[in-house]
Amino acid sequence: MGEFELIRHYFAAAPCAQGGEGVALGIGDDCALLSVAAGEQLAISTDTLVAGVHFPAVCDPFLLGQRSLAVAASDLAAMGATPIGFTLALTLPDVQADWLQAYARGLNQMAQACRLSLIGGDTTRGPLSLTMTVFGRVPQGLALTRSGARAGDLLCVGAELGNAAGALPLVLAERQAEPAVAEPLLAHYWSPSPQFALGQALRGKATSALDISDGLLADCGHIAKASQVALQVELERLPVSDALQALLGREGARQAALAGGDDYVLAFTLPEAQLAPLQAAGWPVHVIGRVASGTGVSLVDGQGRDITPVTRGYQHFREQP
Amino acid sequence: MGEFELIRHYFAAAPCAQGGEGVALGIGDDCALLSVAAGEQLAISTDTLVAGVHFPAVCDPFLLGQRSLAVAASDLAAMGATPIGFTLALTLPDVQADWLQAYARGLNQMAQACRLSLIGGDTTRGPLSLTMTVFGRVPQGLALTRSGARAGDLLCVGAELGNAAGALPLVLAERQAEPAVAEPLLAHYWSPSPQFALGQALRGKATSALDISDGLLADCGHIAKASQVALQVELERLPVSDALQALLGREGARQAALAGGDDYVLAFTLPEAQLAPLQAAGWPVHVIGRVASGTGVSLVDGQGRDITPVTRGYQHFREQP
Predict the structure, then answer these.
(1) A224-251 per-position pLDDT tens digit
(2) For chain B, does the N or the C end have fewer beta carbons within 10 angstroms?
(3) Do A35 and B140 touch (CB under 8 A)?
(4) B94–chain A Cβ distance below 8 A for any pair
């Protein structure tokens, strides 16, 4: 048996690869088979992470295992989908048992936390990269898309913003911080928590949604474009963490919240009448602005004055990777 | 708009990305949405191709576009699935418009030939590699797996074997041949035809199936193991093409048929009573051996004598990549 075939057997033996709800046939045949209940649709998303581009070429493989799956799975949360499973296409320059075991442990931990079954994949030799394709189910007609925002809706996010951007200089060892500051930021970067439960709670309520991966302003631009509306983000309403403010100061934290990538927090639009019941039920819904008629994304102050030009410089963050 | 975002728009505008049967939501949101009819299951497979490992680093991007999708889609044929769609995770070192356009044309041509809709993906910067995840539908309980072969069944293949292995020295420019020999072999390598129709015709008839990607003997080993049976391959029954024999001679052609990879031809087991009706209906069913009780794969001559030791040397081809 070749070493890459051994890796396949190794992943196939992971707890997260032993099947789960909706998985009719898992790893080991030409295809996996998923069962989809009548009245449900299958949600699918693919993400690639390349070493040196999307994560440091030298990093903790356990943390990478967690993060690589969470990043992909967050797209399911953004559609309001219930997780089913994922495939892993893993390209490795060579086989290092320690690395693989730690990576698989991190992957497995996140998979079980997300209730995602590993249903298949491919393992090949080449420069380190990971492609995850994730699968979820959602009742027909209730998937949260980017295209339904209407003028008058509230613009909301599901958690504090900018933590991952704050963590990045720590991840890259360009900067240091005391543990009370560094730890929560690094945890957010390496082990994001896809907001599945919030996404499901927003079914039939939010008019649009996505997960923030490219930065709030850039991603709001995607909603504005798909929905053919304007979005106004109110600078002073941006929720930021104490740790982020301690690291970057108030202004720096706001900049990270506006333009930083990798948050994997839901952004969504909501008819005003939906707000109170969701908040009363304990859902983390932070209102950060409004939907208006028009196009594009603008930044406003507490009095509704347009202060967008100040932040034009952020727009280069829209480019990816 | 960044150049990688431009690429995404470019693929999103391809004819194969305009939706199709079963595609409720295509490219452009956090997830694609597929509809699966009641009584059907979704078949899923992922394949990665890395430049310099699975295809020459310098090659015709149009041909690569065709081949990269066909290789992945062949797994759907092997399950007896009807194609629905695919995602493409494309990692590129830089953006070369000519290369991308040719690649996309080849991809689109194969996608339309296979009736596969491009439903999503990711485009990232890094060393050239391609990960395709393909989706098909199959009536519940009728997917062709590797695990149902029974002693007494016939072992069959769906087309001539070894053509891609014969083409490889031509692809790598290690060898030349006259056009009448080279062209059919190169066509088989660069533009394999996944046997979807045959796979669907075998639903409820074949007891096991897969597509030959690692070489006949290695892949028969997968059926033998999954089904807990022995497979006997009769050397003189192996179907090989005139072009392959012209290039490699009779013995060389048989070796290519036994051990060569990349055929993407179906191998399957069939109760004897199923053979005549399938052949009468015009399906390309070539009997190449038998299923017996026991384990492993053996090679036999026309008199049923075990001649396996002669070919032991092939086993190193089982290792991948």
Answers:
(1) 999 999 999 999 999 999 999 999 999 9
(2) N
(3) yes
(4) no
